[in-house]
Input
Amino acid sequence: MKIRRLLMSALLPMTCLCAAAQQGEDNTPAKGDFTVAATLGYNSYTEATALPGNLTDYEAAAFATDWSKKKLTVGFEAGYFVSEKWKLSLGGGINFTHNPGYADKPGTMTPGMSGEDMVGEIPNYRAVASQYSCTYNVAAGLDRYFSTSVKNLMWYGGVRVGMAYSLNEQKYDVWTAMGKSVGESWSLRGALTIGADYYVMKGMYVGASVDPFAYTYNMTSFRPQEGLARLSADSSNFAILAAPTVKIGFRF
Output
C-alpha cells in the first residue's frame, strides 16, 4: 500500500499537468542544462550498530538490503544533459552523529537479590556509551531520454551504480568494557532504471522512477573489543521492480 500511494502521488499530478498544458510551450531540456532534484524513495543505504564489548559469545548478521524492508528516505539528485537525449546524474547524502558518554552510578542492588531483599534498595544506573556514527551513500547514473506524444513529458531508461557505507563506534566508561567496539557495513548496488519526467515550466519538473532489476551486495563487520579479529557476514540481493522513487526538480 505504501508503494502504491507513493506512485499515485507522483503520477496523478503529472497526469493533470499534462492534460492542462498540452498546448503550452516546449519546456523539454536542451544540451548543457543542469538539474537539481529532491527525491523521496527507497534509496540505497546501509547502517551498522556496534555490539556490546562484554559478551561471551558473538554472532554477525548482514544488514538487510531488501528495499521493501527499508523506510522512505529523502535525498538529492544532480544531473547534466550532455546532449538533448543523454543525461548524467549524481546523488547521495551523508550524516554524522555524536552521542556523549556517561559513567555508571552504582546503587545498593547486588546480583541475586529478589523479593523483600530489594525493598528500599537503590537501583544501579548503567553507563551510557560514548558513540560516533557516520553514514553516507552515493549513486551515479546515465539515462537515455525519449519523447512522447504528450508535450513536455519524456520517459527514460538508464543504469545506476551506487555505494553506501555506515560506521558506528561505542566505548563504555566501565572496567568491564574491553576498549572500543566497532560496527561497520557497506553495500554496492547496480540497477537498471526506467522513469518519466514532466517539465511543468522551463525551470521546473516532476518525475517518478522504478528499477526493473537491481542487485545489491552487502558486507557487515563487527569488532566488539580492541585487538579482536573482525566478525563478518555478507549477503547478495536480487530485486525486480525495486526502489520506486518520486522527485521534484529544477533546471538551470
Remarks:
- The radius of gyration is 25 Å.
